[in-house]
Amino acid sequence: MNVRTTIGLGVVAVATLGAVGYGAWTAGMRSGMEMGSSQPAPRAASAPQDPDAWSVVQGGEATARHLRDGLKAGDVDPVTGRVILSYHDPMVPGKNFEAPGKSPFMDMMLVPRYAGGANASADTGAVAVSPRIQQSLGLRTGEVVQGTLAGGFSVAGNVAWNERNQVVVSARSMGFVEKLHVRAALDRVAAGAPLAEIYVPDWVAAQEEYLAITRMPGADLGPLRDAATQRLRQAGMDAAQIQHVVRTGTVQPRFTLRAPISGTLTELMVREGATVMPGMPLMRLQGTATVWAEGQVPEGQVAQLQPGAKVSATSPAAPGQTFEGRVQAILPEVDPATRTLKARLELNNPGGRLVPGMFVQMRFAEPVRQPALLVPSDAVIHTGRRSVVMLAEDGGHFRPVEVRAGREAGGQTQIVQGLQAGQRVVLSGQFLIDSEASLRGLEARLNQAPAAAAPAAAADLHRTDAVIDAVDGDSVTLTHPAIPALKWPGMTMAFRLPPPEQRPSGLSRGDPVRIEFHTQDGAEPQITRIERVAPPAQGAKP
User: Fold this and answer.
1) Distance set, CA 196 to CA 170, 184, 259, 269 (Å)
2) Which of these, 171, 263, 309, 444, has the minimum number of CB atoms within 10 Å of its CB?
3) 360: three-class secondary structure by DSSP
């Protein structure tokens, strides 16, 4: 091989290597560019989510994410930017947990509770309500003030006879009614007016004996005269009648029965010609100088009344006239329907204008005013076991506070204990706030008493169809559909059964049932009624 051929082969080899290297470099650059262009662009940071707007299902999804990412109470959730306070089961709001996981009560995930939101005050029993919800609920608030209650109070009542002014006119001797000067009940009579003429035969002999002794001569007739006078008294004659016989010197077999008081004849028990016996009641007279007025006084105002306290009354039957009187007695009996006591008042009745059955409005005298802590009466809720007000705090938070209420007057209630001047209380919508707290799993319960909770009211009962998964003593596991009233999704969960005598016998797995139940803080829902139903149609959901 000559030199020229060798040089030519070298040039060709160099050119080939250069072409291959350039191609490889070009391909590598293109591949690198494609790989660079195929990588996803960095995501823009998303805005934090508001957990207060989550449903129960979304809350359960958040708990599952916490479980996957290793988050727990005290950590910051990167999705919401808030500190996780605890985890809870919305169906059992009284229980809190430090770690995420499934509910030990229901077949569902726990729901996280965050700081700085509507649930931030759960541990203090408060609930935060946004201004928008406050407006939709129509919340009104009022201030706790230091002041004095409006003096006195009024109650309505009815007039009745004053039974202490009643007189029964009776016969003192056996005789006959010859004439009546009064003819009918409710006739008005004046004191001393004649009522009846009565003939008494037994008086004749006694009066003749007395007159005969007075006509006898002698100085030692005193004992005889005294004995004759005593027999006149025993016959039924009073001192005035005896003096009349002595003065006239004649026998008086008849006498006129006169009215001992002014008033009204309320009962006439004899007629002309009737025979009367000693002690027999003839008629009944009722004095009208004073009358009774009986009014129903609320329990909370009885403490302001004392026997002898002044009172004034007005009646539509006597416009412009005021009748003065005093409290005679507070009768020891409470009306269980109205929770009132009956106050008996004695009113002056000039001219007899007040008669039984008339309506009167009674105004009790103003007691001594003393400074007190006052709230509008609409703010106080009486649950039967205690008195509660809903306290409005800063930041739209509301918290129920137990108070000791005192007197009530003029739309204001005295607060003896539980509040301070300057605080604000809710005047309307308290139970709507309580319902909001219940939906969020808070423990702010207006009707929650220190003792065991009372049975649920009819308004708190819920109904649903379900299928039995298992029965274990007094507990049953049911699969039920969604319950919108409680914002519950369809799930499998445990319920407490009613007593054996109040439930069907032989309940077993697969039985379709219809239940009526109420929720309980810190416990399984309590079934109050359970009954079997026909199996659902083929393909229908339980």
Assistant:
1) 11, 13, 9, 12
2) 309
3) strand
Average pLDDT of each block of 10 consecutive residues along the chain (542 residues)?
Answer: 49 48 49 44 61 82 92 88 84 75 84 69 60 78 86 86 94 93 93 94 88 80 85 88 87 91 94 94 95 90 84 92 94 89 94 93 75 89 82 82 83 88 87 60 49 46 91 89 85 87 86 89 82 68 48
Collapsing DSSP to helix, strand or coil, 214 comes out as helix
Query: pTM, whole model, 2 decimals?
Result: 0.46
Specify the CATH number of the domain 458-532: 2.40.50.320
> Domain spans of the chain?
51-117, 131-150+370-439, 163-287, 458-532
Q: Residue 382: how many CA atoms within 13 Å on its side-chain side?
A: 10
Q: Which are the contacts of 386, defined by CB distance < 8 A and separation ≥ 6?
A: 402, 449
Instruction: Report the SS3 class of residue 409.
Output: strand
Structure tokens at 384: 């039967």
Tell me if 485 sits within 8 A of 462, measured CB to CB. Answer: yes
* CA atoms within 13 A of residue 490's CA, in its CB half-sphere: 8
Q: Does domain 163-287 have CATH number 3.40.920.10?
A: no
The 3-state DSSP class for residue 228 equals helix
- Alpha-carbon gap, residue 388 to 401, rounded angstroms: 6
- What are the tokens at 314? 């007005």
Top-tier CATH class for 131-150+370-439: mainly beta
Q: Which two tokens stand for residue 440?
A: 């969020």
Q: Would you list the DSSP string of 72-97?
A: -TTSEETTTTEEEEEEEETTEEEEEE
Does an H or E element contain 242, and which?
A: helix 239-248
Copy the structure tokens of residue 80: 């919401």
Contact 236, 200 (CB under 8 A): yes
